[in-house]
């Protein structure tokens, strides 16, 4: 039984356009429901310490290029 390589299957231009349209709709929904922290929220939740800041920055640097490359495929 031959193993089919998944990389051989590509999205068509129509499928890519459809995916982009749906991703844009999801991004708009998330943006409409997101908000910045108020000063009261910042006092309530505090800030992250240096150790956690390193982790947060590492995750952000890892995910940012990934999200852009996924959106451009």
Dominant shape:
flat
Helix content: 55-70%
- Biggest beta-sheet profile: none
Question: Any low-confidence stretches, pLDDT <50, length ≥5?
Answer: none
CA-atom Rg in angstroms: 19 Å
Beta-strand content estimate:
under 5%
Kindly report the average pLDDT value.
79
Q: Give me the oligomer status.
A: single chain
Structural class comes to: mainly alpha
Give me the count of strands: 0
Number of helices: 3
Spatial gap, N to C terminus:
30 Å
Succession of helices and strands:
HHH
Sum this structure up briefly:
This protein is mostly helical. 68% of the residues lie in helices and 0% in strands.
Describe the structure.
The protein has a domain at 44-73. The model has no long low-confidence stretch (mean pLDDT 79). By secondary structure, it is mainly alpha-helical. The protein contains three helices and no strands. The two termini are 30 Å apart. It has helices at residues 13-32, 39-45, 50-72.
List keywords for this structure.
single chain, 73 residues, mainly alpha, 3 helices, 68% helix
What's the structural blueprint in terms of helices and strands?
Elements: H1 13-32, H2 39-45, H3 50-72
